[in-house]
């Protein structure tokens, strides 16, 4: 078997230890590396000529992406997983203790166990490349850093920053890593090895932790630390609602390790073992595997995306501004915004300016980088500069005639292969393409708001969209940093179609008198980031309810929402944007209380006397079952291509709790027979809209699962 490690001794006494796992595109840490590394460490230790060691990667653009997640998924017992963690800890502990200078030379991702390896070294240097990112993302897999990360990162950069990184799992870019003190230097790729070798030739210095003044004060006394840990637990509980065990365990490990390092390590390994076997981690690992698989798909078998060199954005509203931002900064293409007035162009540009300016202020980005990215965005009131546009993305009003006019204008002003992508959330793409001269170029590209944050897009082909248009659109969405799912044309596509009955049912529950905040809390407790009423206030009640007649028109009564909701619009309740919705938006928009309390006048308006009569679980069940049933119908009708796409669409598009794996994995977990029997229960006792999808009945009879 080819080795994953090579040790090259240089004449100056510095050894280069290169990791290059054969047959894999990225280095990951495997359980069976232990013996091999031990032999190499023996050699380093016993060779007096070796003064220092640089650990680097043989892969082109990555350091080490962490422990091999498939290896973790293959663990059968808590003990197996704990042993893996222990092995990692022991090796890294040895690296730390060998009395020679170890330096990690990092280019590309150094994540999870990869960063933990680097943390065990005496120095770390990384490249200033955009590809470089450092982090401990284990929590996003329902895990904790299990190879010493919970102990070493706080010791290196201070408790508060380390805890933030481990609890969010967010990685940092090179300049941030330098600012926080994770790396000692951040240099151009061309001199990475020279700088690392230079450091490896030096004796190890005692380091001071790079902490802000406030952190120093808080972290230096046991009283201050006590307050910090209790605040962290409180905030974590408020955020997770107890649905994710990993964050609390991370805090436990850090706190214990401060008192007793050995205990900290032992607890880290034992809790890591426990977490690997939890259903939450299993589902979150499923999400990782699904998204990795999706990165490789083109959306149209056998077709490669055509290169998009320049795009046009039609309409400079909130969506247009967001689309321009991800195109200019992530896909790095020139963007030409066309609006009917200068104000539209200016506000779309401001969208990007505000985000980038914040990064510059925080010193995460250079002013020159910001200027380069902003220079990618220009605007026009006519179609000047559109001749060379390869894709025009429209984000104008939801009006089919207007969109058809846009198609005609793009066909007139652009070249014959220009793709027309509509960001409609409700109008069938076939209608938008109805008068097109080149309908094969017309496609749906449905973003979610806010565009710079929401990871999903739906790519929707109508009957006449060419497979090449689909492949190119999917490819471009990926360049914008999005996870695209290809869905069939039709009212609501996939995401809004499964969301609508869930939202409407929340409305019916409110009409029965269940308090609005109780309904929201029940669904937040289930794991959604916000409840349905809060969501409607955020999205805009006018916008959110617009889709109902379109869905009813295609699918009938099961999409009806409470008639009384009309009164909300008559009362000009549009939600947060006009300060009048289900919740009270008083005082300053960003004030702590704004949007926290239900606006009681909404009950009077709807003719409701609120009395809590349902438990949280029955509220959640009534709303959820409709979403699950609709998702199953979407699969049955081919609206989505697979249960996997349906799960990722729901998680990334509407915040379906990731630890439940998405609607399909959740149905598998509940058992299809259970889902059918609960649907039948509501269908007979309450409303026929709960009639189970045919596919569910069939699967129950055949005892099949989605996965
Ligand atoms: C004990 C420890 O504390 C526990 C751990 O370390 S748990 C693991 C923590 N690490 C992670 O969560 C990182 C997971 N990986 C990622 O986020 C992303 O892959 C990445 C940001 C590193 C790179 O993204 P990107 O460039 O888009 O490449 P991507 O397509 O995702 O990955 C490339 C390949 O590496 C594989 N890969 C990346 N990280 C992996 C991991 N940790 N385990 C297994 N495979 C991994 C992918 O499956 C893919 O394999 P393929 O080429 O056979 O399809």
UniProtKB/TrEMBL annotation:
Residues of the 3-hydroxyacyl-CoA dehydrogenase NAD binding domain = 310-489
- PROSITE patterns on file: 3HCDH, ENOYL_COA_HYDRATASE
GO terms for biological process? Answer: fatty acid beta-oxidation
Stretches of the chain forming a coiled coil according to its record: none
Question: Where would I find the 3-hydroxyacyl-CoA dehydrogenase C-terminal domain in this sequence?
Answer: 492-585, 619-704
Q: In which pathway does it act?
A: Lipid metabolism; fatty acid beta-oxidation
A single GO molecular function term of this UniProt record? 3-hydroxybutyryl-CoA epimerase activity
CDD domains xref list: crotonase-like
Q: Which reaction does it catalyse?
A: a (3S)-3-hydroxyacyl-CoA + NAD(+) = a 3-oxoacyl-CoA + NADH + H(+)
Against Pfam families, the record matches this protein to: 3HCDH, 3HCDH_N, ECH_1
InterPro entries assigned to the protein according to its UniProt record, in alphabetical order? 3-OHacyl-CoA_DH_CS (IPR006180), 3-OHacyl-CoA_DH_NAD-bd (IPR006176), 3HC_DH_C (IPR006108), 6-PGluconate_DH-like_C_sf (IPR008927), ClpP/crotonase-like_dom_sf (IPR029045), Enoyl-CoA_hyd/isom_CS (IPR018376), Enoyl-CoA_hydra/iso (IPR001753), FA_oxidation_alpha_subunit (IPR050136)
Q: Which UniProt keywords apply?
A: Cytoplasm, Fatty acid metabolism, Isomerase, Lipid degradation, Lipid metabolism, Lyase, Multifunctional enzyme, NAD, Oxidoreductase
What is the uppermost EC class here?
Answer: lyase
- Protein family according to the UniProt entry: In the N-terminal section; belongs to the enoyl-CoA hydratase/isomerase family.
Q: Which PANTHER family match?
A: TRIFUNCTIONAL ENZYME SUBUNIT ALPHA (PTHR43612), TRIFUNCTIONAL ENZYME SUBUNIT ALPHA, MITOCHONDRIAL (PTHR43612:SF3)
Official protein name in the record: enoyl-CoA hydratase
């Amino acid at each position: 078997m080819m080795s994953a490690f090579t040790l090259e001794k240089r004449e100056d006494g510095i050894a280069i230890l290169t990791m290059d796992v054969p047959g894999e595109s990225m280095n990951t840490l495997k359980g069976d590396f232990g013996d091999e590394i031990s032999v190499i460490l023996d050699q380093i230790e016993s060779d007096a000529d070796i003064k220092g060691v640089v650990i680097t990667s043989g892969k082109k653009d990555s350091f080490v992406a962490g422990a091999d997640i498939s290896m973790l998924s293959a663990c059968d017992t808590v003990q197996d997983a704990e042993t893996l963690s222990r092995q990692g800890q022991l090796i890294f502990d040895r690296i730390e203790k060998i009395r020679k200078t170890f330096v990690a030379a990092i280019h590309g991702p150094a994540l999870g166990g990869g960063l933990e390896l680097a943390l065990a070294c005496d120095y770390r240097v990384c490249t200033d490349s955009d590809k470089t990112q450092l982090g401990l993302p284990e929590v996003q897999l329902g895990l904790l850093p299990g190879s010493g990360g919970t102990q070493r990162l706080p010791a290196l950069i201070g408790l508060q920053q380390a805890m933030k990184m481990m609890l969010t799992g967010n990685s940092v870019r090179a300049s941030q890593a330098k600012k926080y003190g994770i790396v000692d230097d951040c240099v151009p790729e061309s001199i990475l090895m020279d700088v690392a070798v230079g450091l490896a030739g030096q004796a190890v210095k005692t380091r001071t932790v790079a902490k802000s003044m406030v952190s120093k004060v808080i972290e230096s006394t046991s009283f201050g630390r006590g307050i910090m840990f209790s605040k962290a637990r409180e905030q974590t509980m408020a955020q997770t609602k107890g649905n994710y065990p990993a964050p609390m365990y991370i805090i436990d490990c850090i706190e214990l390790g401060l008192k007793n390092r050995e205990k900290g390590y032992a607890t880290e390994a034992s809790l890591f073992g426990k977490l690997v076997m939890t259903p939450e981690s299993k589902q979150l690992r499923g999400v990782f595997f699904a998204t990795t698989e999706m990165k490789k798909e083109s959306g149209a078998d056998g077709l490669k995306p055509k290169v998009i060199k320049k795009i046009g954005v039609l309409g400079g509203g909130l969506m247009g501004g967001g689309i321009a931002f991800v195109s200019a900064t992530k896909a790095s293409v020139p963007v030409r915004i066309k609006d009917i007035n200068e104000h539209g162009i200016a506000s779309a540009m401001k969208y990007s300016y505000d985000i980038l300016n914040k990064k510059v202020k925080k010193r995460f980005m250079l002013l020159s980088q910001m200027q380069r990215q902003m220079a990618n965005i220009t605007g026009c009131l006519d179609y000047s500069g559109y001749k060379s546009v390869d894709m025009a993305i429209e984000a104008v009003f939801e009006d089919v005639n207007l969109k058809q006019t846009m198609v005609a204008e793009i066909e007139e002003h652009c070249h014959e292969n220009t793709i027309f992508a509509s960001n409609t959330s409700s109008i069938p793409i076939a209608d938008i393409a109805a008068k097109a001269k080149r309908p094969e170029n017309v496609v749906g590209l449905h973003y979610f708001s806010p565009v710079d944050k929401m990871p999903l897009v739906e790519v929707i082909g109508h009957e006449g969209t060419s497979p090449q248009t689909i492949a190119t659109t999917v490819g471009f969405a990926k360049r914008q940093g999005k996870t695209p799912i290809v869905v069939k044309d039709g009212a609501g596509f996939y995401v809004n179609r499964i969301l609508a009955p869930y939202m409407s049912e929340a409305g019916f529950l409110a009409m029965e008198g269940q308090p609005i905040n109780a309904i929201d809390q029940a669904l937040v407790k289930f794991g959604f980031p916000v409840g349905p009423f809060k969501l409607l206030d955020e999205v805009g009640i006018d916008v959110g309810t617009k889709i109902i007649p379109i869905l009813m028109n295609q699918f009938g009564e099961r999409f009806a929402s409470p008639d009384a909701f009309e009164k909300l619009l008559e009362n000009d309740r549009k939600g947060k944007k006009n300060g009048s919705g289900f919740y009270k938006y008083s005082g300053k928009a960003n004030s702590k209380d704004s949007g926290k309390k239900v606006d009681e006048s909404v009950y009077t308006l709807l003719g409701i006397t609120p009395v809590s009569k349902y438990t949280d679980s029955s509220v959640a069940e009534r709303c959820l079952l409709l979403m699950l049933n609709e998702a199953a119908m979407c699969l049955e009708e081919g609206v989505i291509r697979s249960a996997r796409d349906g799960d990722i669409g729901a998680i990334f598009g509407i915040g379906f709790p990731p630890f439940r794996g998405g609607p399909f994995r959740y149905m598998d977990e509940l058992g299809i027979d259970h889902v059918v029997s609960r649907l039948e229960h509501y269908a007979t006792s309450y409303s026929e809209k709960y009639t189970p999808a045919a596919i569910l009945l069939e699967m129950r009879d055949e005892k099949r699962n989605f996965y």
